[in-house]
Amino acid sequence: MIINPRRKALGASLNPKNLTVVAQANNNSFLDSCAKSLLIVLVIFFLQFSLYGQQNKVDSLKNILRTAKEDTNKVNTLNKLGREMELSGDYEKGINYAKEAIQLGEKINYKKGIAAAYKSHGNINIYQGNYAEALKYYFASLKLSEELNDKIGIAKTLSNIGSVYREQSDYPKALDYSFKALKMAEELGNKNGIAIKLGNIGNIYAELADYPKALDYYFKALKIDEELGDKSGIASGLGNIGIVYDDQADYPKALDYYFKALKMMEELGNKHGIAINLGNIGSVYRNQADYPKALDYDFKALKLAEELGLKQLQATALGNIAIVYDVQAAASAEAKARAELFTKALHYYFKALKIDEEQGDKNGIAINLGNIGSLYITIGNADRSVSTKKYKEAEEYLNKALALSKEIGALACQRDFEKTYSVLDSVLSKKEVGLGNFALAIKYSEASIEHYKKYIAARDSIANDENTKKQTRAEMNFEFDKKETIAKEEQEKKDALAAAETKKQRIVLILVSCFLVLVIVLAFIIFRSLRINQHKNKIISHQKEVVEKQKEFVEEKQKEILDSIHYAKRIQTALITSEKYIARHLARHREF
Question: Which residues contact 338 (CB under 8 A, 6 or more apart)?
């Protein structure tokens, strides 16, 4: 059984299914080889500038680091450099920068910087297949983010923890943490984060082969990305939808989505996305037994990964090329051609294995070891003259693959390797029967049954009823929490409206009360004013009466005086002799 090497992005909805996926084409512009060649040249030209820009960014960060003081800015710079090393596949340097950031962060008590460094450390470990280590660092990052109440950091780390459990095929836990991350993103109103979390949940359902649910979550994520105008998210979503149609063998739809994703990745200059989609398109053609086209796209993906120095993508592309030769050899009827194809397949498997070993990618190592073991079984079956040697080599590589997959907890790989081992022991049992070694044949037969039981156990462990219930429970808990949150929000709105109405009524009551008080005050003022005026009027009236009486008194007195004067005058007139009378009498006297 050939296992396709899978590569999945952390904290993103992109699920680059190992540079391997679906097929049938939009055979329009892509069938024109000249146009395709020109397109690839232009893409490579553009990405060379992109790589140059990335190198400039790294150099700039290194320059900042040389003169940086031991403060939060230096921790942030170390984390940024670690992230660049992580993206370029230089994991050793990435881990060193993360360690330095942690050390300085602890020295200056910069928890946010330490949390980011832990997360970067976890990312590199998941790329390398060190799932236990990845979880250790993610949980350490989560704890610090919770202490800081950094909800964005919490949501991202929860999502990454879900990704680790997905790699380990622990889907109930993967869903549990992914739904927690989604809930937090919704509470924050972070639409971009919501889209990413929806895509990650879609990835889990895709691996569970629950394609309707996978498509449901992918299309929800795609809708949000389209609303936001997030072209990178749209391209990733289109690729993920293509994977689901590929898994369902709906190759025309798969290719349609892959080519749309490829075009958008080219417009964005996203080197990872371009290489991934080229590989996915190649694997579609491989599934359709169109091996020349499959190799064409796989080699383009490999060339692009090599020019960009992306080791992990190189290993994936090499593994995909090996798979094409492997499948093509098994289908070939001509012995010489088959042998040549087997040789090529082994060559590329070992090249992929070497890069994975250099990168410390345990998941990739296990997959390539298992594929090499499977190929040796096929070679032994095809050529009886070398079968004994090839079966031994197959056993050797399958043992290594099983041991490593158990070490990292990759349950899906264990399942597939146990099945392949069961096939090997079954073949060996038949061979011993042919040789008359019945005791040995029974031994191999029992071993085959034992491996098959382990295969069933691993398969059931991944998809048993209890896990299905846990997965359903995780989704139901999320939906319940979501409904509860909505109900709570509705109640809060109602409470807010009621409070607002109560406040409004209180304000109205206060205003009415104030108005009444004002009216009363005004009435009092008016009443008081009236009383004062009334009092003033009384005073004025009294004063007028006094004045009138005084006037009458004066007039009366004046009259009395006048009357007195007139009376005195009359008396005077009566008593005093007139001058003429006196004069007459005087004259008389002179005559005597």
Answer: 329, 330, 332, 382
Q: Tell me the C-alpha distance between 479 and 487, whole Å.
A: 12
Is pLDDT larger for residue 109 or for residue 562? 109
Nearest to 27 by CA among 300, 244, 259: 259
DSSP-derived 3-state class of residue 7:
strand
Nearest to 80 by CA among 63, 99, 94: 94
Mean pLDDT score, 240-257: 95
End-to-end CA distance of the chain: 199
Which residues are paired to 7 by β-bridges? 17
Torsion of CA 104, 109, 113, 114, to 10 degrees: 80
Q: Phi, psi (5° rounding) for residue 234?
A: -60, -45
Angstrom distance (rounded) from CA 78 to CA 60? 12
Helix (H, G, I), strand (E, B) or coil at 414: helix
Angle (CA) 265-269-273 rounded to 5° is 40
- For residues 307 and 524, the model is more confident at 307
Task: Please calculate the CA angle 264-246-328 and round it to the nearest 5 degrees.
Answer: 110
- Please report the pLDDT score of residue 62 as a whole number: 84
Identify the DSSP state of 31: G
Residue recorded with tokens 């007039």: 555
Distance of CA 198 to the CA centre of its chain: 9
Cα torsion 288, 290, 294, 295 to 10°: value is 150
How many residues are given for the chain?
Answer: 592
- Nearest in space to 243 (alpha carbons), one of 204, 194, 294: 204
Tokens describing residue 353: 């294995």
- CA-closest candidate to residue 95, choices 123, 58, 131, 114: 123
Q: What is the dihedral of CA 278, 281, 287, 290, to 10 degrees?
A: -90
Residue type, 509: L
For residue 17, the cross-strand partners are 7
For residue 382, count other CB atoms closer than 10 A to its CB: 17
CB 265 within 8 A of CB 42: no
Neighbours of 77 (CB within 10 A): 20
Buried b (16+ CB within 10 A) or exposed e, 483-493: eeeeeeeeeee
Q: What is the DSSP string of 57-83?
A: HHHHHHHHHHH--SSHHHHHHHHHHHH
Residue 7 phi, psi dihedral angles, 5° rounding: -125, 130
Express each pLDDT in 158-168 by its tens digit.
999 999 999 99
Q: Taking residues 426-452, what's their average pLDDT? A: 92
Q: How big is the CA angle at 103 (ends 97 and 106), to the nearest 5 degrees? A: 135
Instruction: Answer whether 154's CB lies under 8 Å from 11's CB.
Output: no
| Rounded Cα gap, residues 103 and 82, in angstroms | 14
Give the position of tokens 């079954």: 426
What pTM does this model have?
0.71
Task: For residue 19, give the nearest of 6, 36, 30, 3 by alpha carbon.
Answer: 6
Q: Is the dihedral of CA 572, 575, 581, 583 positive or negative?
A: negative
- Which two tokens mark 491? 């109640």
Cα–Cα dist 487/528, whole Å:
59
- Residue 35: alpha-carbon gap to chain centroid: 37
Three-state secondary structure call for residue 564: helix
Rounded Cα distance, 439 and 535, in Å: 137
